[in-house]
Amino acid sequence: MKNILAPSVLGADFSRLNEQIQKTKEGGAEYLHLDVMDGAFVPSISFGMPVIAALRGCSDQCFDVHMMVQEPGRYVEAMKKAGADLICVHQEACTHLDRTIHQIKEAGLKAGVALNPATPISVLENILELPDMFLMMSVNPGFGGQKLIPYVLEKIRSLRKILNERGLDKDIEIDGGVTLENIRQILDAGANVIVAGSSVFQGSVLENTRAFMEILG
Question: Are 193 and 173 in contact, with CB atoms under 8 Å apart?
Fold first, then answer.
């Protein structure tokens, strides 16, 4: 399973966004993590299709769009048009999760399913074969700069074990409180797609990205 760094644009300096994104690419990050927040599913409002479309013109990295919005299926086509490569939706935000996953796949995009920290992995039982990726939130979503919630690592271990037992080759992504100090712990638990915001964008973006990539291999 390939390890991937997905710098979270939410942690960037928006006055230097293009410059900092280029530094993440130069450092070896294949993905960009784009948090879309609606002020309803989570308290904050971030950005939407116009910003993603503008960034698409600056980067050929994989756009990993994390939809922290109610009923995200409404926006699949618009996100595709804006330049999304992967759309990750929250189990908690979808009335019909199966339908939403199929909608994303039928649009020709990769699909991810996210769980909030307190949501058990048992809710994924019936759809394990459908998504390309599972995102385990390691903070309560809506704000950057939070500390990783330790019990989420056990959720990752359990999910990886289940996927391995079923012969399912799926990515597990972690988002929230990821640092250079805890990244090895996270990898050992079974995550392979690593979202990092503040830890990448505070200080030298290039040096921070390279430091993560050195560990990720």
Answer: yes
How is the chain split among helix, strand and coil, in percent rounded to 5?
A: 45, 20, 35
Show Cβ contacts of residue 18 under 8 Å, excluding neighbours closer than 6 positions: 55, 58
Q: How far apart are CA 173 and CA 113, in angstroms?
A: 10
Q: Which residues of 163-196 are buried (b: 16+ CB within 10 A; e: fewer)?
A: beeeeeebbbbbbbbbeeebbeebbebbbbbbbb
pLDDT tens for each residue of 108-155: 999 999 999 999 999 999 999 999 999 999 998 766 667 899 999 999
Q: Which of 143, 156, 76 is nearest to 115 (CA)?
A: 156
Residue linked to tokens 């710098």: 7
CA nearest neighbour of 86 among 26, 33, 9: 33
Q: What is the pTM of this model?
A: 0.96
What SS3 class is residue 194?
Answer: strand
Asked whether 15 and 217 are in contact (CB, 8 A), the reply is: no
pLDDT bracket for residue 1 (50, 70, 90): confident
Helix 17-27 to helix 49-56 angle, to the nearest 10 degrees?
A: 60
Model pLDDT for residues 59-78, shown as the tens digit of each residue: 999 999 999 999 999 999 99
DSSP 38: B
Catalytic site positions: 35, 175
CA torsion 26-7-215-163 (nearest 10°) is -130
- What's the rounded Cα separation, in Å, for the pair 173 and 163? 14
